[in-house]
Design goal:
alpha/beta
Length: about 525
């Protein structure tokens, strides 16, 4: 007879304990917790990781006879309990005690009622609440996965203790995980590829890789919110990652978002040269983002650029070295003066719909000839052409800023033949001429070093012109993203003004100046 092998289920920890610190609970409260199959444990510090891993709630019961000790318990243990996902209850037994407790606890991330199942810490304040209310709060709380202190982490192990802690919770059902960091974005989030290994006995112990994004709790929740509002029901499942809710969680300050990793893919930047990746751009906007574009055309609502401009541009962050370096090109206005010229965009109302908010060549992956969208942290409602303008500036400026340049080959980048040829293309693409600017650039007859850039820009302009016929309206959005180029890097001391990155960002500032001045002159004449 053949041996019938049966997969053993992974080890799980039932989080059925409630920790009670401070003034002892009444018999009624004990009974109510027992009825909900929760074990109420009256305890004293220290609280071990084991204690917190099997618990779903901690109650700090204020003891007026030992006021200092009660406050000390909250200050010492509330945040740690929250990091384990526990419901934190500050329980006042007398009037006024709740205010003393509230002043000594961190503000945890607020979660809307739409995300009642999202594992996260919550703080609750209670004053003489009946026992059944406290027990019901604990019973319904989504504490999320417990800490697995024995999880083996291999590869390029994060040095941040908070990141390690979150990984050991998010992948607590695994035997081991192997980490490979991805490029850190401008937001400072840490993005990892995680190769998991489940315990022996699993039918399939080696799943496809995950992505894990670690960031401040507020940002993690905001991106998960974007998935719920803009992604899951509107972008085809084959053209975006999918979040795995049971591995997404928040702590008191940091959180983790986990989902499918787009394996065997490359970034759009890797495919743009030498032909401009026109088919991928078509796949991105007419396939992946078709659901977003449908919203805008079916409802035909309008929105001002000013409604999302603060999410694109912070005038105070425009770096002074770029402004100085742009003066020899011809720029004569300061950052605040240029951004005030953007206020004139309020005369134009744009077709309104969902937008990615940070569409660049790194946030577009390509797999099997299809565009795949990632990183939805900044997704919102805005002008539909904003994503087109964002990607256009990324293609025309970002990629050139990141070019590898060897001074020995052609002297300084600013004096090089490469820069002069790139500048010629930029001047042709972004010089405003009434009646000509947003008309699609003609096909280039002679191939050259930046033919791919011209071709990609032409494809984007075709789509932008279909959405917004007013060339000045699209010009304002382009200028906003050009000025955004001058906001980075955040550390001004890292700017090397002769390097390609700084030269290109300075030229982006000059291009924004030239574009805005030309539009203003045209509108005055009109």
């Amino acid at each position: 007879m053949a041996f019938a092998w049966k997969a053993a289920p992974p080890m799980t920890i039932e989080r059925t304990q409630v920790l009670w610190l401070g003034r002892a609970p009444s018999k009624t409260i004990l009974t109510e917790f027992t009825r909900r199959r929760l074990t109420l444990t009256v305890t004293n510090p220290p609280l071990s990781d084991r204690d917190l891993s099997v618990s779903r709630c901690v109650v700090f019961s204020f003891d007026s006879k030992h006021k200092g000790r009660s406050i000390g318990l909250v200050k010492s243990w509330a945040s740690k309990a929250a990091d384990h996902g526990l419901l934190v209850v500050l329980h006042a037994n007398e009037k006024g005690e709740d205010k003393l407790l509230q002043s000594h606890i961190l503000d945890f991330p607020e979660v809307t009622t739409r995300f009642v199942d999202f594992p996260r810490p919550i703080k609750q304040f209670s004053f003489r609440k009946p026992g059944y209310e406290l027990a019901e709060l604990a019973a319904r709380h989504p504490a999320g996965p417990p800490l697995n202190p024995d999880l083996e982490i291999k590869g390029e192990v994060p040095t941040n203790a908070s990141d390690l802690f979150l990984l050991k919770r998010a992948f607590s059902d695994c035997k081991a995980i192997t980490i490979k960091p991805l490029t850190k974005g401008l937001s400072g989030a840490r993005v990892l590829v995680v190769y998991a290994e489940f315990p022996e006995g699993e039918a399939a112990p080696y799943p496809l890789p995950y992505f894990a994004k670690l960031d401040r709790s507020k940002r993690i929740l905001q991106e998960y919110d974007a998935y719920e509002r803009f992604v899951t029901r509107y972008i085809p499942f084959s053209q975006r990652p999918n979040c795995e809710l049971k591995r997404c969680l928040l702590g008191s300050t940091d959180g983790i978002l986990v989902g499918d990793f787009v394996d065997d893919s490359v970034s759009l930047s890797d495919l743009l040269q030498p032909y401009g990746a026109r088919a991928i751009i078509h796949s991105l906007f007419d396939d992946a983002l078709r659901g977003w574009r449908q919203q805008a055309f079916r409802r035909d609502e309008r929105i001002a650029l000013a409604d999302i401009l603060p999410t694109i541009l912070d005038p105070a962050q425009i770096k002074a070295p770029y402004i100085r370096a742009a003066k020899p090109f011809g720029a004569k206005l300061s950052g605040p003066e240029l951004t005030r010229m953007l206020d004139e965009s309020s005369k134009h109302l744009y077709r309104r719909g969902p937008v990615h908010g940070d569409l660049n060549t790194q946030n577009v992956r390509v797999k099997n000839g299809e565009a795949v969208m990632i990183d939805f942290y900044k997704s919102t409602i805005g002008p539909l052409v904003a994503d087109l303008a964002s990607l256009e500036i990324a293609i025309c400026f970002d990629l050139e800023a990141n070019t590898l340049w060897n001074e020995k080959d052609d002297g300084r980048y600013l004096d090089s033949s490469r820069f002069k040829e790139w500048r010629r293309h930029i001047d042709a693409l972004f010089t405003f001429k009434a009646g000509e600017f947003s008309i699609v650039p003609p096909l280039q007859e002679q191939p050259c070093l930046h033919t791919w850039m011209w071709s990609a820009c032409r494809q984007l302009r075709l789509m932008a012109y279909y959405i917004e016929l007013d060339e000045k309206a699209y010009g304002y959005v382009l200028a906003a993203y050009m000025l955004r180029m001058a906001m980075f890097p955040e550390d001004e001391a890292k700017i090397q003004i002769d390097a390609p990155d700084a030269v290109v960002r300075s030229y982006a500032y000059w291009s924004a100046y030239r574009l805005l001045v030309a539009i203003a002159s045209h509108e005055e004449a009109a």
